[in-house]
Amino acid sequence: MDRLDFHHTYMVKILGRKLFLAPIPSETTHRILDIGTGTGIWAIEAADVFPNAEILGNDLSAIQPSWVPPNVKFEIDDVESSWVNEQKFDFIFCRYMAGSIVDWPKLMKQIYANLKPGGWVEFQDYDINYVSEDGTLTEEHHTDRWSKLLIEACRKIGRDPCIGPLLEGWVKDTGFVDVVHQKFKMPIGPWAKDPHYKEIGMMNLIQLMDGLEAFSLRTFCGVHGWTREEVLVLLAEVRKELKAGSFHAHTAM
Predict the structure, then answer these.
(1) From start to end of the chain, where are the E strands?
(2) Tell me, what is an example of a GO biological process annotation in this record (predicted)?
(3) Is residue 169 included in any domain, yes or no?
């Protein structure tokens, strides 16, 4: 859970210390849904921004705190199943669900059907392809091999971890209007000269190193059929390259 909360802080930092970018009027916003709420930290912080709104966070896992602001509640739910809501929402927020959703167009339709007229939805998600604009990341790097194998494994099980560039098309196809697509670079490591991107790069490296073994073992062993020992040998080399700053690369949101 600590990693999820750190990741929240990281995402907010990328956006210039903002929880969201949509032009949501506080005074006329009464119902908000946070899809895949995780530890509930976004919903809890949003409660301060929207004190008069009912904020619902849903997730498959019950890892949310028991003490929350009075206008926040959580429920265990699978957003890919049929939605049953008595009232529609003014704002639906969906962040960091790449690799978790199988049928994105279906989810878009469910969101569209559960928004009030004039309501907003905001997606914040990734393209985890490693991009090296100066060519310092090459096929000789273990990190390059690891990242490509990770993406391949996720796609084999129908959970694309690079849906960021696809979201705009799905949103428009669903019927949403006033669509805005903003792209943010996320350096891997503190190599950038700009202080803002240097800090983002360090935070990205921290959260990547923290989760590296868990999601690599799950995908490489479960999908590619590697042994645990084979995965750990590769990860040892990946960690060396990441710590040494052997290349300049970024992912995107």
Answers:
(1) 31-35, 54-59, 72-76, 89-95, 115-124, 127-131, 185-187, 250-252
(2) methylation
(3) no
